[in-house]
Design a protein that fits this description.
Blueprint lengths: L2 H26 L7 E2 L15 E2 L1 E2 L58 E6 L7 H16 L3 E6 L18 E6 L13 E11 L2 E12 H9 L3 H16 L23 H11 L5
C-alpha cells in the first residue's frame, strides 16, 4: 500500500473513533444540551440585594473537528494575548475557582488570546440594561485582561443550550428572566451565571461559552428604587462566575453568596480575577 493510502486509512480510523465519541456524548447528554448542577442556594440577609448562585455546567470531551463559522476553532493555537497579563495582587482575602485543571491549581477559564463574544436578550431587562452589561464587561476585563465584544441582541430564550455543540460555539448569552422560566431563580436568587468547558487537549479544559441570567423582578425593583450600585453588583457577581470565580464565605468579597451590601470587588476577588487572566493561551 502506498504512503498516501496508509495516511487515508489512518485518517479514516481516527475519524471513526471521533464519531464513536460523539455518539457516546450524544447518548449520555444530548448534543446541544448540557445539564446544570447547582450547589445549595444561600439566602441573602437583605431584602434588596441578593447575590446570585453559581451554575456549574457539566463538561464533556468531544474529539471531532469543529466548524468555525464566525468563531475561531478552540483547537487552533493562538500565540498573542489580546491584552497584557494582569499583575497578581497579594490579596488579603479569599477567592475560589469553579473548576481547576488536573493539577488542582490552575483555574479553568477562557482563552486570553481569544475574544469572549456576547449577545443580549433585552426582553424584561431594565431601561439601562446596556450600560449595566457594558460596565460589567469593563470591570471584568480590567480585572482579568480578557477581551469581550457585544456582537448584538437576540430573541433567543434557549438558556439550556448555551453550550458548545457539534458545530459552533454560540456567544455568551446575557438575559433577564423569572423563576417560572428559569427555576434556578426561585427564592432569594437574583441571578445565575456560568460557563461550559471542553477538554481541548488531553488534561486541559477551557471555557467556550456560557450564560448570565438575571432576575427581571429584582431588577425592576432596583430600577424603581434607583438602586444602580446594587444592580451593577449583581451582574458583576455573575460575570465573576462566567469567567470562573466561585463563591467564598467572606462578606468583604463580591463573590460571597450572601451579600449584605458589598458592591465592589474585594481583595480576594481581585486576586482571583488576576489568576484567571494569567492562564496561558491555548
Amino acid at each position: 500500500m502506498s504512503w498516501e493510502g496508509r495516511q487515508r486509512r489512518k485518517r479514516a480510523r481516527r475519524l471513526e473513533r471521533r464519531l464513536r465519541e460523539l455518539d457516546r456524548v450524544d447518548a449520555q447528554h444530548g448534543l446541544g444540551t448540557m445539564p446544570w448542577q447547582l450547589p445549595p442556594a444561600r439566602r441573602s440577609r437583605t431584602p434588596v440585594f441578593v447575590a446570585g448562585i453559581l451554575i456549574v455546567f457539566i463538561a464533556v470531551w468531544v474529539g471531532g473537528q469543529f466548524a468555525t463559522g464566525d468563531w475561531r476553532n478552540p483547537f487552533t493555537r493562538s500565540h498573542d494575548r489580546l491584552h497584557p497579563t494582569p499583575p497578581i495582587p497579594d490579596g488579603d482575602g479569599p477567592h475560589a475557582f469553579m473548576a481547576t485543571q488536573r493539577d488542582g491549581r490552575t483555574p479553568v477559564t477562557y482563552d486570553p488570546c481569544r475574544t469572549i463574544r456576547l449577545e443580549i436578550n433585552p426582553e424584561g431587562a431594565p431601561p439601562d440594561y446596556r450600560n449595566l452589561v457594558e460596565d460589567a464587561i469593563e470591570h471584568t476585563a480590567t480585572a482579568t485582561g480578557f477581551e469581550f465584544e457585544i456582537v448584538g441582541e437576540t430573541d433567543s430564550r434557549r438558556f439550556e443550550q448555551r453550550v458548545f455543540g457539534a458545530a459552533t460555539a454560540p456567544p455568551v448569552l446575557v438575559a433577564w428572566a423569572d423563576a417560572d422560566e428559569v427555576p434556578e431563580l426561585k427564592g432569594d436568587v437574583a441571578g445565575v451565571g456560568g460557563s461550559s468547558h471542553l477538554e481541548v487537549r488531553p488534561n486541559f479544559r477551557q471555557f467556550v461559552t456560557g450564560a448570565v441570567i438575571l432576575d427581571r423582578d429584582v431588577y425592576a425593583r432596583l430600577a424603581s428604587n434607583h438602586n444602580r450600585p446594587h444592580a451593577q453588583a449583581i451582574i458583576d457577581h455573575e460575570f465573576g462566575h462566567l469567567v470562573g470565580l466561585g463563591h467564598v464565605k467572606d462578606a468583604g468579597e463580591l463573590m460571597n453568596a450572601d451579600n449584605v451590601g458589598q458592591t465592589s470587588y474585594g481583595p480576594g476577588d481581585l486576586e482571583g480575577f488576576a489568576r484567571l487572566g494569567n492562564v496561558p493561551c491555548r
